[in-house]
Design a protein that fits this description.
Organism: Rhizobium straminoryzae
Number of strands: 0
Pfam families: DUF3563
Strand content: under 5%
Low-confidence stretches: none
Order of helices and strands: HHH
Protein name: DUF3563 domain-containing protein
Structural class: mainly alpha
Length: 50
């Protein structure tokens, strides 16, 4: 009964921080770019600084 509602709710939710970071890393084309992106993520590219 609630499965369609859960599916709908998941489709509308925003991606989590971990999902956004992983998607960003997965877009790299080679090892050098991957290392560069990993350093950016480690420096807090996706985190909000107050």
């Amino acid at each position: 009964m609630f499965k369609p509602l859960r599916t709908f709710a998941r489709a509308l939710r925003a991606p989590t921080l971990q999902e956004r970071e992983m998607a960003y890393l997965n877009e790299s084309h080679d090892a050098i770019e991957l290392e560069y992106r990993m350093r950016q993520v480690d420096r807090g590219l996706f985190r909000k600084v107050i």
